[in-house]
Amino acid sequence: MAGRIAHVIFDLDGTLADTGADLAASVNHVLETFGLDPLDPSSVYRYVGDGARVLVERAVGIARRDLWDSGVDVFLAFYREHLLDRTRLYDGVDGLLAALSGAGVCASVLTNKPEDLSRRILGALGVLGTFVDVIGGDTLPVRKPDPEGVFRLLRLTGTPVEEALIVGDSPVDSATARASDVPFCGVSWGFNPEGLATESVRVVGTPEDLWRMVVGND
Questions:
Q1: Which CATH architecture has domain 7-18+88-214?
Q2: Contact 26/32 with Cβ under 8 angstroms?
């Protein structure tokens, strides 16, 4: 990727933090509450990316759409109590964030997870202060892949689109990049590498690879 990168906009789930085990446990709590069979965690991971409501809708299924509203309530109540049981930063992410900060590169978070939960996770993992802002799925009237969250973050730091980079693990993230005309880089360690594999996007294998790309060494 040619040119200076001044601002990196990160997805959260499956990109910065491995939240999968706690999301899967919360989804299966919903299903068990309704007397339904639990899902394999790998199935839940494929449903992540579009926010809590869509996650629950996909897990419960369209045939039981009458359970969607109450399912979201059950999910959020359980997840709020268990969102840090097994969630952790991916290996190398803390070093990447420190390196970006040291190089004067702004970092922010754009996620479809509710903002308060996102800030709780990032704070507990010790990296909240790294980011100039965190925009969640309920911060604005719209969410990814709508580009407004990207534009708000870029206005905050005065960064032109050609000096920004969106980093994520799902087609929702790459669609957000296309909608905002911001370059995109996928990560292979996330929840939906198969989804990214179907798109013509660059994908890196480690946070160190991403760092080298940002500083122009790759």
A1: 3-Layer(aba) Sandwich (3.40)
A2: no
Q: Is the pTM of this model over 0.90?
A: yes
Cis amide leading into 147 (omega within 30): no
Q: Quick: pLDDT tens for 111-168.
A: 999 999 999 999 999 999 999 999 999 999 999 999 999 999 999 999 999 999 999 9
Instruction: For 2-29, give the DSSP string.
Output: -S---EEEE-SBTTTEE-HHHHHHHHHH
Paired residues of 10 in beta bridges = 109, 167
Q: Are 122 and 110 in contact (CB under 8 A)?
A: no
Phi and psi (nearest 5°) for 207? -60, -30
Is 169 annotated as catalytic?
Answer: no
Catalytic option among 11, 18, 22, 169: 11
CA distance 200 to 217: 21
To 5 degrees, how large is the angle CA 116–CA 119–CA 124?
125
| Tokens describing residue 82 | 């268990």
Q: Give the rounded distance of the alpha carbon of 52 from its chain centre.
A: 12
**Residue 163 tokens, joined:** 């000096």
Give me the DSSP letters along 55-94: HHHHHH-GGGGGGHHHHHHHHHHHHHHHTTSS-EEPTTHH
